[in-house]
Design brief:
By secondary structure, the protein is of the alpha+beta class. The chain is 50% helix and 11% strand. The chain has 25 helices and 22 strands. β19, α24 and β20 form a beta-alpha-beta unit.
Length: 670
């Protein structure tokens, strides 16, 4: 058996390199082999932190008898959805269309021409083996029927894709956002926070939209928006979805109450939530908001940072083959670590019961209320964290995904500035340096890297947009103009290679690998859609440079927003957040002054603290206001009577400069 996955850059593919299944990576040679052998192709798509992917692997792909059936009757192709989101998007659409649901592992049977004819997700071993035999028999006895069905599916997908993301709308107005708040309110879970029932995912982009909406002067539902954002953020922070010992958030809650999570932990969730909790703290000043924001950033640095300076994709749900084993406790285990007195205190504080909230009488730690004795709580928490470190740790998928690192860079840059945390700024700069050094070549982005080596997958729109946004945020936090220049280059590629004939955006470039169709889904998933993410990055770049071309492109990218927000507002959060930035201007804030002057730093932090929705920030030394400026927003902005100054502008028209944080905050509120 060939071991074709041994040299893969994906940890997920490497997990399967030793299977008795004769796996192929996605490549033309695999489909040529299927044509040569005259057999169907099995496409198996998953990711390394996926619990049910592991279950199917243990049951079927590691079983010699099942593997023999697969090898005899199929050409088997394994794909990491995080490395090739374009392939995942195409065949997940097929799976959802054919079964009414989706998820991972995704199991697709297709012709050697890449046309799907049977789709499923997780399949237990015995039904899976029966299915293989049935498909092999049908392939021999009813080839024309299978080929016809596959052709019909492929043609239907291509027709549907022709209308994806293409809806165009007029200028963004406040009514769209106001209506979205009302639609979200109808879905809001007033008891538990969040929207809808189980399973319940962190609604990161929606929370950012609600916080921005609550800041818009005169917004009719501003108080309601803030209440929904705060209620959800607090419920998640106190629930089991939040790791009460180590910080960070799991991927989703299996119930509506945030108690028991699905334990896999994703970079993209934690990057977005770090930004949300930092924003909530700016809005409320609450201790819980700041604590969770910093704990989430600390989690990124402690658990996901790679030796090259980037951030790993995920932590596994399983430890030693058991889901959640690293995180759950019994009262007896608490007492064994802490002694009976502190063990009882910990059980009460963290809501650990004899019955348990998880499997086998174990409980996921929660924090229903802040403990009165913070010193004792801190001591107990540190002791439990140290004891947990001796357990078998979840596996880590250490590939670096460009777009997700862009989200982390933006969050760390913003948190580093408002919390005065140089370690966050240093980590953001290191991750940006890795992306610029390893992922970016010839102006084009690689989707992933591992061990400092770029992976084979080309960047998708999400990558260009989120990396550009991260670079712009980093420039605003550090004053380094090179990040604006790099962001501009990425956005030029987005405008030149990812646009469609109608001015909208596709998720893959026009010179990318041809698939059944070119994906163009404007709706958010767990990450912002590429379309809405690029709208935000284009708008920020326009605000920093005065480019009307970029602003118009940003507005065009929001074309699908009204239709998505009306149908399913939970999938429109990132677009609605960009819309609020449009409605706010967005504000352009230029801070100038000697970098070492404490007055400059005070103005800089005040600008970040008081920023209206979507505001952009430029930092310069103000030494030569008449000379050329690397960032156009800084051109002509100088010191005032030798003192550091801040300029609040919209559309490059500025108010009189101010020189104190108090006056700056007043100007930003006005």
């Amino acid at each position: 058996m060939a071991e074709r996955l041994r040299g893969a850059s994906s940890p997920y593919l490497l997990q399967h390199a030793g299977n008795p299944v004769d796996w192929w990576p996605w490549c033309e040679e695999a489909f040529e082999e299927a044509r040569r052998r005259d057999v169907p192709v099995l496409l198996s798509v998953g990711y390394s932190a996926c619990h049910w992917c592991h279950v199917m692997a243990h049951e079927s792909f590691e079983d010699p008898a099942t593997a023999r059936l697969m090898n005899e009757n199929l050409v088997c192709v394994k794909v990491d959805r995080e490395e090739r989101p374009d392939i995942d998007a195409v065949y997940m659409t097929a799976t959802q269309a054919m079964t009414g649901q989706g998820g991972w592992p995704m199991t697709v049977f297709m012709t050697p021409g890449r046309e799907p004819f049977y789709c499923a997700t997780y399949i237990p071993r015995e039904p899976f083996t029966r299915l293989i035999l049935a498909i092999a028999r049908a392939w021999r006895e009813d080839r024309a029927g299978i080929a016809g069905r596959a052709r019909e599916v492929a043609e239907a997908l291509a027709r549907a894709a022709g209308g994806q993301g293409r809806a165009r709308a007029g200028p963004v107005g406040p009514g769209l956002c106001d209506a979205a708040v009302g639609a979200l309110a109808a879905r809001y879970d007033a008891r538990h926070g969040g929207f809808g029932g189980a399973p319940k995912f962190p609604p990161s982009a929606v929370l950012e939209f609600l916080l921005r909406h609550s800041e818009r002067p005169g917004a009719p539902a501003g108080a309601q928006a803030l209440a929904m954002a705060a209620g959800t953020a607090e419920a998640m922070a106190r629930g089991g979805i939040h790791d009460q010992l180590g910080g960070g958030f799991a991927r989703y809650s299996v119930g509506p109450d945030w108690v028991v999570p699905h334990f896999e932990t994703m970079l993209y969730d934690n990057a977005q939530l770090a930004g949300v909790y930092a924003h909530w703290w700016r809005r409320s000043g609450g201790a819980l908001a700041r604590r969770v924001a910093e704990q989430t950033c600390d989690f990124l640095l402690a658990e996901l940072r790679t030796p090259e300076g980037g951030f790993a994709s995920a932590l596994d749900a399983d430890s030693d083959g058991q889901e959640g084993a690293y995180y759950v406790w019994t009262p007896a285990e608490l007492a064994a670590v802490l002694g009976p007195e502190d063990g009882g205190y910990a059980a009460e504080t963290f809501a650990v019961t004899e019955a348990g909230t998880f499997e086998h009488g174990r409980s996921v730690l929660r924090l229903p209320a802040d403990p009165a004795d913070s010193e004792r709580f801190g001591r107990v928490r540190r002791a439990l964290l140290a004891a947990r470190a001796a357990r078998a740790r979840p596996g880590r998928d250490d590939k670096v995904v460009a777009g997700w690192n862009g989200l982390a860079i933006a969050a760390l840059a913003q948190a580093g500035l408002i919390f005065g945390r140089e370690d966050y700024l240093d980590a953001a700069a290191a991750a940006a340096g890795l992306l610029a050094r390893v992922h970016l070549a010839g102006g084009r982005l690689a989707r992933t890297s591992r061990d400092g080596v770029a992976g084979p997958g080309a960047g998708v729109l999400e990558d260009y947009a989120c990396v550009a946004a991260g670079f712009l945020a980093l420039s605003g936090a550090t004053g380094q103009a090179r990040w604006v220049e790099l962001a501009g280059g990425l956005l030029e590629v987005a405008l030149g290679r990812f646009r469609d004939a109608d001015g909208g955006f596709c998720d893959t470039p026009d010179d990318g690998e041809p698939l059944l169709y070119r994906p163009a889904d404007a709706a958010d998933g767990p990450t912002p859609s590429g379309t809405f993410a690029v709208a935000g990055a284009l708008l920020s770049y326009a605000a920093l440079t005065g480019s009307e071309r970029h602003r118009q492109a940003a507005e065009a990218a929001l074309g699908p927003l009204a239709a998505i927000a009306a149908r399913y507002p939970q999938a429109a959060g990132s677009g609605l957040a960009v819309a609020e930035a449009f409605l706010a201007g967005p504000a352009e804030i230029a801070v100038v002054g000697p970098p070492a002057d404490p007055r400059t730093r005070e103005l800089h932090r005040a600008a970040a603290l008081g920023s209206p929705p979507g505001a952009v920030l430029a930092l310069g030394d103000g030494a030569d206001p008449e000379g050329p400026a690397a960032i156009p927003l800084l051109a002509g902005r100088g010191l005032v009577d030798g003192r550091p100054a801040a300029y609040v502008c919209r559309n490059f028209t500025c108010r009189l400069p101010v020189t104190t944080p108090q006056d700056l905050l007043a100007a930003l509120r006005g």
